[in-house]
Amino acid sequence: MNYLAPFNVAFAGLTHGKHTFLLEVNEDFFACFEHSEVRKGNLRLELLLDKQNSMLELNFSIKGFVELQCDVCLEDYQQPLDVSKRLFVKFGETFEEQTDEIVLIPFGETHFDIAQFVYEYIHLGLPMRHIHAQTSDGTPGCNPAQLEKMKQYMTKKGSGTTDSNTSPWNALKGLKFED
Asked: Looking at the DSSP assignment, which residues form a beta bridge with residue 96?
């Protein structure tokens, strides 16, 4: 089954004016992209298509959550997402992305595939650091057992009592350079 088929929006038979499309974005969608940072999610895409004589205006509203791996404790967590983007589709001789917001498609096209744009908008909406949200009392939302293990590891390694034979710089001491 082609899970991306609903994202190939047919605009040829539509009247001029505004049209709304509602689509679900979930793990089947993300599985279609090989190196996706997101594997699971439950998002709702509301696409408002405004068909005009010479172009299409697409307004994307993506809301829901995606499942990410926490950078601190390495456990999965749900990251809320609320993304709004706009794309102008103009007609020309060939397919061409002029800017981040303007795309040219050939005159004879009857469909426009938005799957790649939805994928990119979702990834651009992700925070730089993937971490659990803090709890209501201000403590980190990460797994406390995992944080404790990391704390024990950091105190053992960071105590300044490293063996000089295990230093990674020792491998460079034996290098000799010709003058």
From this structure: 104
